């Protein structure tokens, strides 16, 4: 796939945008007129910059309100076109994007538009240039690619072709199969954008809410499949108008864009066997969380270990060469790393005690690693002692690490190979915790789409709809990435301000990361009893909450009493019931959760507001928990 992106997608000044686009790996760039007009250099300077970065200018855009104008506007429009042609020749690009007319002065009529395009084609041909016509979803007369194609077909000029833009076609739910019969040579370029499904004015939706393919809800893959079926082998160019991207990190958004195209090509190839992208292993199937690793130091490890103990974990093994202890309960493995050097220590120095790494058990770790790299993931490695395993790893959220292990290679036995079993002299028995139910990551709001795309492109997982959670200090947006088998469940909370618990965590931790871990039990009341016996202090939940759920769900008062006595939160969905129990916060807002699912699929979103209020009440203004046990 030949990749391109419109400069309008990114924040910053033109040189910064171009540098980020090249660095992300794009082959081409659409120069958006305003970016060029705001730049001090000449068109030739821009052309040189692009080519020096190893890219092509795929097109110059947009040329507006062209077709169907009455005189004298019509003549002026052609004069304007000639001036754009001058700029294009200086830039060194042969294609201009003409978007369908939105002017109140425009006259309709296919014949008139056909005649205008034929003449524009003649003028372009004299200079060796080409004209591409795109139907804007809100065009005055032409707002459907089928009509734009009819005009291009009848203009019947080799220098006039069609520009398809997935947003305009999909936002109007135009049948994508109508693309299949268009001759590939008449498709001059294909623009791609996704968008979240929001019911609003098309123009406003398009100019503010587009996002990268795979980040939204539109069937961009089906659209691209239809394009690929024509044999089209030109550029696929991202054109994303998005307020968040315009204010975001230029490099990060460009990198997301490149990843989105690689992933899209992979999906299209998998479905149609069309060779539009490089072959890569399938999305990795996650079968479990292998371990979660905390970075801390000798002094601070004590409190963390004490908390793990009250949760029923026992010290099971010690690393053979590093200062890393392995705590276990059921299938859950927690590593506590107090190495005075190395990556974990550096992470600790920046973030404080921190769950910096996560190991995912996948069907094939080597393949998953290869796929992640093909999708531009950043590899991670650090020296290991002789005889120890080198776990394949990539950088994850907030600069954390994701290790990839599997059961088919020695990687699955990492805890036997790299660790020495020990007997815990202070083992009080477990609390019935079985496995990691979900990992909750707090991220800056403008990174949410980044990580959504990261997880869903590498792993066999899908997103669920975004939910708003009301924190007393503001709104937190919550989005889940989960696999069908339930083995991968990641909740991402995006904080827009630092007065929220999530925002506080990010500010104090100097970045995004794992904010809580939820462990599964199959008997929440038994677990609550053993936790209490081991000195665990559950998060106190307001009695008002229990009166409300009793009425809301029609609970048996006995059950409500038991829930209240143990500070257990309750929810129910079509699948069944959900029980949640929380620890207080540890450090700058990290906490543990214990859940029991009785067929329930969700994450207790309706309870989040009460949980957040309780956690905040428990934290002193300096952020140190009052009675976290
Ligand atoms: O919003 C617009 O005006 C606009 C301009 C050019 C495009 O290619 C497009 O898709 C939208
Ligand atoms: Mg477009």
TrEMBL record:
<feature type="binding site">
    <location>
        <position position="593"/>
    </location>
    <ligand>
        <name>Mg(2+)</name>
    </ligand>
</feature>
<keyword id="KW-0614">Plasmid</keyword>
<feature type="binding site">
    <location>
        <position position="516"/>
    </location>
    <ligand>
        <name>Mg(2+)</name>
    </ligand>
</feature>
<feature type="binding site">
    <location>
        <position position="134"/>
    </location>
    <ligand>
        <name>a divalent metal cation</name>
    </ligand>
</feature>
<dbReference type="InterPro" id="IPR004360">
    <property type="entry name" value="Glyas_Fos-R_dOase_dom"/>
</dbReference>
<comment type="similarity">
    <text>Belongs to the bacterial two-domain DSD family.</text>
</comment>
<keyword id="KW-0479">Metal-binding</keyword>
<feature type="binding site">
    <location>
        <position position="165"/>
    </location>
    <ligand>
        <name>a divalent metal cation</name>
    </ligand>
</feature>
<dbReference type="GO" id="GO:0046872">
    <property type="term" value="F:metal ion binding"/>
</dbReference>
<dbReference type="InterPro" id="IPR013022">
    <property type="entry name" value="Xyl_isomerase-like_TIM-brl"/>
</dbReference>
<protein>
    <recommendedName>
        <fullName>3-dehydroshikimate dehydratase</fullName>
        <ecNumber>4.2.1.118</ecNumber>
    </recommendedName>
</protein>
<feature type="domain" description="VOC">
    <location>
        <begin position="435"/>
        <end position="584"/>
    </location>
</feature>
<dbReference type="Pfam" id="PF14696">
    <property type="entry name" value="Glyoxalase_5"/>
</dbReference>
<feature type="binding site">
    <location>
        <position position="191"/>
    </location>
    <ligand>
        <name>a divalent metal cation</name>
    </ligand>
</feature>
<keyword id="KW-0456">Lyase</keyword>
<dbReference type="InterPro" id="IPR036237">
    <property type="entry name" value="Xyl_isomerase-like_sf"/>
</dbReference>
<dbReference type="InterPro" id="IPR043700">
    <property type="entry name" value="DSD"/>
</dbReference>
<dbReference type="GO" id="GO:0046565">
    <property type="term" value="F:3-dehydroshikimate dehydratase activity"/>
</dbReference>
<dbReference type="GO" id="GO:0046279">
    <property type="term" value="P:3,4-dihydroxybenzoate biosynthetic process"/>
</dbReference>
<dbReference type="InterPro" id="IPR050312">
    <property type="entry name" value="IolE/XylAMocC-like"/>
</dbReference>
<dbReference type="Pfam" id="PF00903">
    <property type="entry name" value="Glyoxalase"/>
</dbReference>
<dbReference type="InterPro" id="IPR037523">
    <property type="entry name" value="VOC_core"/>
</dbReference>
<dbReference type="InterPro" id="IPR029068">
    <property type="entry name" value="Glyas_Bleomycin-R_OHBP_Dase"/>
</dbReference>
<feature type="binding site">
    <location>
        <position position="438"/>
    </location>
    <ligand>
        <name>Mg(2+)</name>
    </ligand>
</feature>
<feature type="binding site">
    <location>
        <position position="239"/>
    </location>
    <ligand>
        <name>a divalent metal cation</name>
    </ligand>
</feature>
<keyword id="KW-0413">Isomerase</keyword>
<dbReference type="Pfam" id="PF01261">
    <property type="entry name" value="AP_endonuc_2"/>
</dbReference>
<comment type="function">
    <text>Catalyzes the conversion of 3-dehydroshikimate to protocatechuate (3,4-dihydroxybenzoate), a common intermediate of quinate and shikimate degradation pathways.</text>
</comment>
<keyword id="KW-0670">Pyruvate</keyword>
<comment type="pathway">
    <text>Aromatic compound metabolism; 3,4-dihydroxybenzoate biosynthesis.</text>
</comment>
<feature type="domain" description="VOC">
    <location>
        <begin position="288"/>
        <end position="407"/>
    </location>
</feature>
<dbReference type="GO" id="GO:0016853">
    <property type="term" value="F:isomerase activity"/>
</dbReference>
